[in-house]
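Entry details:
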Amino acid sequence: MQRRWTMGVVVLAVAWLLGGCGGSEKPVENTTPVEGDDGEATGGGEGASDDQLDEIERTFDRKASIVARCFGEALNAGEIEKDAEVIVTVTTTITPAGKTSNTQIEKATTNSPAFKACVIRYVDSWDFPKVSEPTKFSHIYRIEEF
């Protein structure tokens, strides 16, 4: 197994998550990727082809708005400040069946238990491409109110 670092970005308008609290609705906007610690992605893993790794990355990118919901949950729980920016690295292993195992938050700019549990819960519910061997994969999300 080899790690592949990927990047995804979400800019979140929290107000629509707080609809009942008097917030106004704002759209979710995608912007440029956030660089990882080393600034670039590493090569593909033994258990997945480049096409499969690209599809795994696209799955993470498509689900960015779902991860943004976790920001709202943590905000409602009082664990994240309204004007906070959260950068989180999610690491999981994609199984040959296209499911996840050992999903964890590798790094986060918040200590919010609600946020971290929510992200893990969502990632573990997603379907990924089938791979020939378990493949470790990491993805970075950046979430902020605008």
About this structure: The longest strand covers residues 85-94. The two ends are 38 Å apart (CA to CA).
